[in-house]
Amino acid sequence: MTNEGWVELSSFTGAGSDIAANMLIAHLESEQIPARRFPLQTPATLLAGVMDQPIVVLVPEEHEAAARRILTEKPFDAAQGQDATDEQSATAGDATD
After folding, report:
1. For residues 28 and 31, what is the distance between their CA atoms, to the nearest angstrom?
2. Are 11 and 39 in contact (CB under 8 A)?
3. What is the per-residue DSSP string for 51-92?
4. CATH number of 6-88
């Protein structure tokens, strides 16, 4: 697989990088933005402990502007596994009850 025609949108390092990258990809795909990661998730990469190597989330060049706009308008909090705006809405709803 080649990454030609794909651009880096974000990268993750550290213990939660694998999950965070996958969650960002799911977030983008829920907004109809194709996305993939590099390196690919395979048993070999999981067993090799590639924690010191960043996991890069890529989108096609023609979707880069839309993907960046989505992340600006609807920020994603990988630590919470949800849109940051959802969390703000839930907090605001609690304050008015």
Report:
1. 5
2. no
3. GGSPEEEEEEGGGHHHHHHHHHHS-EETTTTEEHHHHHHHHH
4. 3.30.70
Name 84's Cβ contacts closer than 8 Å, sequence gap at least 6.
Answer: 74, 75, 76, 77
Which residue is associated with the tokens 């194709």?
Answer: 34
Q: Tell me the two tokens of residue 69.
A: 């706009």
Q: Show pLDDT as tens, one digit a residue, over the chain (97 residues).
A: 577 899 999 988 877 788 888 999 999 999 999 999 988 766 555 555 555 678 899 999 999 999 999 989 877 666 554 444 444 433 344 444 4
Quote the pTM value. 0.69
- Between the alpha carbon of residue 87 and those of residues 69, 72, 82, 93, the distances in Å are 19, 15, 7, 10
